[in-house]
């Protein structure tokens, strides 16, 4: 990606930053393949203590060298003075549903709005999020977005996706993105067709509650549940489950699940937390979704913060202020979640205290929501140093991509976030974004309203 227009654009952006007074020096007329960030405080994503005065050398798309002191810059390297700055891996949101795949049409039906999805993906980058896991969507839409992202067709965080979610006939999620399975034998061809699309992590629904306030929903038999997981695994695909109660979550462990797409939706026993920890099954935290819905009724002003403006499409933001806010209030969801949120916080803290691998996930579709999630996790009592790992490496572990992503370690892909403030001192520092890199290349931070105009 050096000789095409993309590299040239990246250089222009760098030059702009330099003119804006940032202490950066770029050499050469084409985009450099080496990048040296020096004298920076390194927060590597593993949960290790910050390392001040460090240098990180990126060669091509990977981290080539990390030193506690200085590194000699290779000829032609792009150099960044990290004095006063903090270098982290790019943030990972381990639970989103990308907007645009299933837009409601007036008078019924849905349509795909790809430009909206592309703006929203830019919004994630604007918020420092360099990887997302789409936990269920219109499969055609999200797999196309994933292919386009991998082909570099537009600026985007890395997209990992489930596509269709697997549920029992008539079960939770059946009517939305569901692929229904009554038993593995009967539905083998259907399952194989889904696995052939290479979901990065297969999401399975196992929730007898049904949707809020609706009738109890059917779930798989134990045998079917285990059979689906076995078939996914034999296709090289790990699995994650949406389960609501402790008993459903325990049954999911018995069935062989690799991850939890949510924590249990009420208080949990220590015994359960210990079991999840011992099995090393990661849990996506997803506090932001309920907090967003609960808070929009009384305090919708959070929508006006710079991060929301930088990461939510203007028309979608207006919907949140108006029709969506009304919907959340009228449906009773806002009131219900307001009661529930303190219990979720307790459950998360108990999981953390028992050593469970937590990964920050929002169940939303905006970069700003991940910052809300991190704030909620801090408020739930998670110390800020382990939170740096929950925001980064643990997401990669959840996605089974930790060999390449999630931490600043030699040989890994250079998805980086440079901050102007210390996130181990103040959780708000995640919003003090100086620069974002994906594959070792600087990402242009673009206001979304300029993208909407055309
Ligand atoms: Zn979800």
Automatic annotation (TrEMBL):
Pfam families assigned to the protein according to its UniProt record, in alphabetical order: Amidohydro_1 (PF01979)
Domain Amidohydrolase-related residues, every copy: 86-441
Domain of life (superkingdom): Bacteria
Signal peptide: none
Coiled-coil region list: none
Cited InterPro entries: Amidohydro-rel (IPR006680), Metal-dep_hydrolase_composite (IPR011059), Metal_Hydrolase (IPR032466), Metallo-dep_Hydrolase (IPR051781)
Any GO MF annotation of the entry: hydrolase activity, acting on carbon-nitrogen (but not peptide) bonds
SUPFAM superfamilies documented for this protein: Composite domain of metallo-dependent hydrolases (SSF51338), Metallo-dependent hydrolases (SSF51556)
Protein name, UniProt field: Amidohydrolase-related domain-containing protein
């Amino acid at each position: 990606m050096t000789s095409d227009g993309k590299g040239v654009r990246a250089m222009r952006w760098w030059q702009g930053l330099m003119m804006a007074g940032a202490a950066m020096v770029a050499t050469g007329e084409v985009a450099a393949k080496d990048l040296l960030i020096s004298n920076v405080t390194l927060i590597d994503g593993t949960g290790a203590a910050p390392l001040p005065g460090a240098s990180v050398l990126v060669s091509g798309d990977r981290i080539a060298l990390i030193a506690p002191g200085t590194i000699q810059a290779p000829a032609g390297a792009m150099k960044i003075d990290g004095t006063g700055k903090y270098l982290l891996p790019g943030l990972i949101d381990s639970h989103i549903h990308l907007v645009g795949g299933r837009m409601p049409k007036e008078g019924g039906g849905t349509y795909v709005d790809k430009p909206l999805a592309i703006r929203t993906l830019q919004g994630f980058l604007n918020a420092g999020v360099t990887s997302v896991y789409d936990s269920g969507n219109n499969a055609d839409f999200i797999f196309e977005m994933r292919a386009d992202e991998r082909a570099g067709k537009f600026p985007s965080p890395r997209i990992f996706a489930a596509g269709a979610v697997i549920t029992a006939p008539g079960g939770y999620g059946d009517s939305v993105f569901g692929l229904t399975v009554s038993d593995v034998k009967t539905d083998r061809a259907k399952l194989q067709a889904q696995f052939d699309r290479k979901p990065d992590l297969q999401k399975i629904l196992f929730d007898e509650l049904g949707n809020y306030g609706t009738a109890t929903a059917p779930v798989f038999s134990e045998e079917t549940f285990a059979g689906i997981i076995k078939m996914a695994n034999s296709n090289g695909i790990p699995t994650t489950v949406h389960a609501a109660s402790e008993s459903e979550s325990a049954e999911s462990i018995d069935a062989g699940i690799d991850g939890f797409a949510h924590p249990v939706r009420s208080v949990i026993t220590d015994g359960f937390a210990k079991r999840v920890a011992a099995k090393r099954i990661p849990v996506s935290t997803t506090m932001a979704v309920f907090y967003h819905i609960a808070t929009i009724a009384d305090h919708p002003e959070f929508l006006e913060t710079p991060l929301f403006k930088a990461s939510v499409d203007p028309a979608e933001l207006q919907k949140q202020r108006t029709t969506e806010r009304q919907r959340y209030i009228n449906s009773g969801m806002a009131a219900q979640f307001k009661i529930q949120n303190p219990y979720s916080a307790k459950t998360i803290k108990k999981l953390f205290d028992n050593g469970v691998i937590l990964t920050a996930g929002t169940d939303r579709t905006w970069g700003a929501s991940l910052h809300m999630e991190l704030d909620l996790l801090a408020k739930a009592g998670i110390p800020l140093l382990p939170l740096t790992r929950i925001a980064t490496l643990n997401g990669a572990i959840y996605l089974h991509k930790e060999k390449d992503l999630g931490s600043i370690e030699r040989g890994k892909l250079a998805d980086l976030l440079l901050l102007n403030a210390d996130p181990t001192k103040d959780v708000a520092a995640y919003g003090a974004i100086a620069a974002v890199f994906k594959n070792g290349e600087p990402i242009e931070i673009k206001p979304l309203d300029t993208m909407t105009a055309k």
